[in-house]
Write a structure and sequence with these properties.
The structure holds two protein chains of two kinds. Chain A is α+β, with helices and mostly antiparallel strands. Chain A is built from eight helices and 20 strands. Classes of the chains: A alpha+beta, B mainly alpha. The structure holds adenosine-5'-diphosphate and magnesium ion.
Chain lengths: ~350, ~270
């Protein structure tokens, strides 16, 4: 079994810096998601770990072994590519058996492992076909089965579900999670989809502009984002951020008065849409509703508070209509205070 | 019949006529006997049906040897052009290096050299190297002619094969060479075969270099050029037919293989 250690890795393409000095530890058997917007360097990092891309500086360790200068085949890991990369001229069986054949596994082992991997991905009935005769979802399963067949201790995945339709994605997500947990595979999983990262990962590394902004379990990332960027990237709807003026260690917005970690100056208050509850008139934060989107279990309200746009998840009894003014109070302990200048969470407030 | 399919079949008919009519006219000249050649207007069927011209032609002193030289030179050209052109094409497709575009242009520029200008220095050099009047020498010149196409065509083949397929092979235990042999080559094979065929045909048809660089070891084209200028017309047609047939038969023979492989590669 093996963990992954990424130590001070940097990467530039010519004058363009794709990864600023970056470190990340993935524990043995852990599932870490690299989450970030397109172009933030997720794929580059994954490819450096795989050995498909050279690094500008830093080290990569797999299972305590420095693999930085080893070719991909000697790094003892498996990978699932975003566009599947199943070999079009081989049958599904041969695709799945590929890694085992290269490792010179004997016939019975190949047969057993291929059947097992195909079984896990529910594609036993497709083993005789060529990839050209498969749908996108089935090819995806073949790609995952090919990686699982070698029983890797480390698995890398680059947006493996992004080409599937929503329903299939949800189904595959659940299956992946179960299979990988069962096998205890150390997994580094790239995605730009925050629900995928939240649902699958033990820990999420949120990336932005070539660096990791936060590395924490899903709920910690959700509840206590390390930066304004993380708060607005993770969660749907994104976290609300209100710029306020602190005075005497507190901020006052309308009738709402909250203690804050700054004595004076500007400060940013971060609060999740579902953490703002209706309060009696005259006590809370005045919120002018502009748009109401009924979503079944709750309604999503968009409007202004303190002259800034925020979103509120409203699950109250009474119907709300646009143009109304609600009064809201945040749930105690669910507020994140951020520095107004650099957008970072202020230490010790959460 | 709807206008669309009418247009389609008209196109098919035109394409067939484009290729088949000249071949048929040459064949008719070759097997139509002495009178058939001069008949005007041409009838669809030649007045007589005789292989005598062909038989006589093939029995002309030296034709057999020239035919053999042609096949040997073309086969060597095919081998050299694919063996040298494929790696060059792969490098162009997969690696980015300084001066890549210049290199690409340079490859094409080799074809801009008129071979007539090169003829004399080439002859001198070949005499010095002992390559003059050998089939190998002819094959080398033909390789130079075919190589630019081989490199550029194979490079576009490799560009069409996703890099991730190779990367996946590396991840699952292949060296670069193994990945090329196991993954890239099978997918590129139909295209490489077509490239080889093309090199074969270039060599088979080439006459100038072959005439200049040989005296006794003539290829068929070079030989026919000297012999047939003094022959009756129906013998020339017989010679023409012998020149055309091998390429046609060759392409016809491998067509199913080409189509089958392309069918898989295109998926
Ligand atoms: N081979 C390359 N050459 C030059 N720039 C590259 C190359 N690969 C990636 N980049 C750049 O590096 C940045 C990060 O890319 P990538 O890792 O693919 O982002 P992500 O996977 O997060 O969308 C992007 O700005 C991209 O343009
Ligand atoms: Mg990417």
């Amino acid at each position: 079994m093996a963990g992954i250690a990424i130590e001070n890795v940097r990467k530039s393409f010519g004058s363009m810096t794709a990864l600023k000095e970056l470190s990340l530890n993935v524990e043995d058997g852990e599932f870490v998601a690299l989450l970030g917007p397109s172009g933030c360097g997720k794929t580059t990092l994954l490819r450096i770990v795989a050995g498909l891309e050279t690094r500008t500086s830093g080290r990569i360790l797999v299972g305590g072994r420095d693999v930085s200068d080893l070719p991909p085949r000697e790094r003892k890991l498996a990978m699932v590519f975003q566009n599947y990369a199943v070999f079009p001229h081989m049958t599904v069986y041969e695709n799945i058996a590929f890694g085992l054949r290269m490792a010179k596994a004997d016939r019975t082992k190949v047969e057993r492992q291929v059947q097992r991997a195909a079984g896990l991905m529910h594609i036993e009935h497709l083993l005789g076909r060529h990839p050209g005769q498969l749908s996108g979802g089935q090819r995806q399963r073949v790609a995952v089965a090919r990686a699982l067949a070698v029983e890797p201790s480390v698995l890398l995945m680059d947006e493996p579900l992004s080409n599937l339709d929503a329903l299939l994605r949800m189904e595959m997500r659940a299956e992946l999670k179960a299979v990988l947990r069962e096998a205890g595979t150390t997994t580094l999983y790239v995605t730009h989809d925050q629900t995928e990262a939240m649902g699958l990962a033990d820990r999420i590394a949120v990336m932005h502009g070539g660096r990791i902004e936060q590395l924490a379990p899903p709920m910690a990332v959700y509840r206590t984002p390390a930066t304004v960027f993380v708060g607005s990237f993770v969660g749907a709807p994104p976290m609300n951020f209100l710029r306020c003026q602190a005075a005497d260690g507190a901020v006052a917005i309308g009738a709402l008065k909250l203690a804050c970690p700054r004595n004076s100056g500007e400060i940013v208050m971060g609060v999740r849409a579902e953490d703002l509850l209706p309060a009696t008139a005259g006590t809370g934060l005045p919120f002018e509703v502009r748009v109401v989107e009924p979503l079944g279990s709750h309604a999503l309200l968009t409007g202004t508070a303190h002259r800034q746009q925020i979103r509120v998840v409203y699950a109250g009894e009474r119907d709300v209509s646009a143009g109304e003014t609600l009064h809201l109070a945040p749930i105690a302990g669910r507020i994140c205070w951020m520095d107004a200048a650099d957008g970072r969470a202020i230490e010790g407030t959460t | 019949m709807r206008p669309r399919s009418l247009l389609f079949w008209a196109g098919v008919a035109t394409m067939c006529a484009w290729v088949l009519v000249p071949i048929w006219l040459i064949a008719a000249g070759a097997i139509g006997g002495r009178q058939g050649v001069f008949l005007w207007p041409k009838s669809m069927l030649p007045p007589e049906f005789t292989f005598s011209a062909l038989a006589v032609f093939l029995r002309i002193e030296g034709v057999g040897k020239a035919l053999w030289n042609s096949v040997a030179a073309a086969a060597m050209t095919m081998a050299f052009a694919t063996l040298l052109g494929t790696p060059a094409g792969y490098a162009l497709a997969r690696f980015s290096f300084r001066g890549q575009n210049a290199y690409r242009l340079l490859i094409l520029l080799t074809r801009a050299f008129p071979i007539a200008i090169l003829a004399l220095p080439l002859t001198v050099a070949f005499i010095n190297w002992g390559l003059y009047d050998t089939t190998l020498g002819v094959a080398l010149v033909h390789t130079a002619l075919a190589l630019p196409f081989a490199a550029l065509v194979t490079s576009s083949l490799f560009v069409g094969i996703p890099r991730e397929l190779e990367e996946a092979a590396w991840i699952f235990g292949c060296t670069r060479l193994q990945a090329f042999v196991k993954i890239v080559l099978p997918l590129a094979l139909p295209g490489i075969a077509a490239t080889g065929l093309f090199a074969f045909v270039i060599s088979w048809n080439e006459v100038f270099a072959a005439s200049v660089l040989t005296v006794r070891e003539r290829t068929l084209t070079a030989y026919l050029l000297t012999v047939l200028s003094e022959s009756p017309l129906h013998f020339r047609f017989a010679g023409g037919l012998v020149l055309i047939l091998p390429s046609v038969v060759f392409i016809f023979a491998v067509r199913r293989y080409l189509f089958a492989m392309w069918g898989i590669a295109n998926r």
